[in-house]
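Changelog entry: the 1-deoxy-D-xylulose 5-phosphate reductoisomerase record was regenerated in this release. Current contents:
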Amino acid sequence: MAGPLKTIALLGATGSIGGSTLDVVARHPGRFRIGALSAHSRVDELLALCARFRPEAAVITDPAGYDALREGLRALGLPTRALAGPAALDEVAADPANDTVVAAIVGAAGVASTLAAARAGKRLLLANKESVVLAGDLLMQAVAEGGATLLPVDSEHNAIFQCLPADGGRGGVRRLLLTASGGPFRGRSRDSLATVTPDQACAHPNWVMGRKISVDSATLMNKGLEVIEARHLFGLPADRIEVVVHPQSVIHSLVDYVDGSVLAQLGNPDMRTAIAYGLAWPERIDSGVAPLDLAALARFDFEAPDLAAFPCLALAFRALEAGGTAPAVLNAANEIAVSAFLQGELGFLGIPDLIQACLDAMPASPAGSLDDLMATDAEARRLARGLVARGGAR
Ligand code: NAD
Ligand code: MG
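Regenerated structure tokens:
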């Protein structure tokens, strides 16, 4: 029997994770309903989703879209409330009408609403890894104080969550092993990457994702952000979190126990598995993902990550070890660098150079409140933008 109907606030509904979430939700109309949807600026796409899922509230975070959203909802004859601006995300994330929040916004723009959902004690499906990198301690504190149920959607963390002891403890856990696909440029030398284009960087071999995370996968910064995410979500120190490249992206991650047992979670590379797990936990529901065909796969490969060709992973470990504000600087500099790369203002090799320059220029200080972290975030963005304008980090 499915439990009571769950009402979902889906933040970042027009994105890749947003679309996968709606696909799973639509398969289980008796179990889930959509209470709120958000998009940043694509009003037409948001309206189409409102017509299909009939939420109570729709948020357009770019206030310029408010009139078009309100008029569009009226023209469709929908009773959906139109809301605008970033504060409206926090409002729907904490709204008692929604028991589940899917945090699927990209970047630090998702941090306030993720924290709001945690404080309000929601079932929180966390895809927005940048908010954990930026404010991991505050987020874990908010989850504990708010009584939220945090379910990782990032496939590696979802896999680890599934493989950790069921009692929620860490008894007998030796290491966490995060798998990395290696991205579209696996095996290439650093020099050969100088001229790669945004479209080449976004052509991921196994996953179809938003452009920011696709570039992060190509630089291996995605894995670096995930190491920091794992450190917060699972409470193990950095020296017990390792990365192994596994090009097939079928083993989503592993937990190594002191008795020599290594537990892994496997599946086809499709985010609907992790999303369905988070939506229904502790039950299991159909996600639409095809069964794994091991004989057709034939083999699994593994190799160590190439830190010389992909320095972003080492930069993330450096920021994690420095602690305090360093992960916030790393994340902000990376967001600016990726955006500049996608706009043709920075070469691919300029991405790690820019991040390193920002980490060098802004030594770690203790991280206090969210306001402190947001001030660090803003300062690192200013610094990174200035470096891009002056022609990169060199
Ligand atoms: P995407 O670019 O496809 O979608 C991003 C969503 O966020 C869109 O709905 C967009 O409207 C919204 N958005 C963008 N900027 C915003 C802003 N400033 N304020 C408010 N909303 C804004 O991204 P995605 O690939 O779906 O990734 C979403 C998050 O999930 C990221 O943090 C990513 O790292 C994480 N994630 C994604 C995948 C994946 O397979 N796509 C896997 C693991 C983790
Ligand atoms: Mg991942």
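Residues 370-389 form the longest helix (20 residues).
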